[in-house]
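Here is the promised in-class demo. Please do not try to memorize the tokens; focus on the logic of going from shape to residues.
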């Protein structure tokens, strides 16, 4: 099933925020805060956000195999083109992304998840 424009626009803030985990630079405390604030403002549960991270953003944005990674941020149109076909689909190699989780983006996700939870409980 193809994603609707409404579904894509609803997910875009999460995609943009989570894609920062895959930039070739070190996230700073204000980056973590911005990402957590953005995700906390979405209607998605923590589990849904993690599923979006693993099933949609990671397969599209993981740039470990590129010679020159992305530094400035992923283009919104590029994110839309690469990620929207993944909505509602389980990645073929989900276990690969879960196995990569601990050393690719787990630290970032855990920091953001903790802060997002704090924001939502205020």
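The designed amino acids, position by position:
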């Amino acid at each position: 099933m193809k994603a609707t424009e409404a579904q894509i626009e609803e997910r875009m803030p999460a995609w943009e925020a989570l894609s920062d985990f895959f930039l070739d630079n070190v996230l700073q405390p204000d980056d973590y805060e911005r990402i957590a604030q953005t995700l906390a403002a979405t209607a998605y549960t923590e589990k849904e956000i993690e599923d979006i991270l693993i099933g949609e953003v990671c397969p599209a944005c993981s740039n470990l195999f590129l010679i020159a990674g992305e530094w400035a941020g992923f283009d919104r149109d590029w994110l839309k083109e690469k990620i929207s076909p993944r909505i509602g689909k389980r990645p073929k190699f989900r276990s690969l992304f879960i196995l990569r989780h601990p050393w690719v983006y787990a630290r970032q996700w855990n920091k953001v998840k903790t802060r997002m939870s704090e924001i939502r409980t205020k």
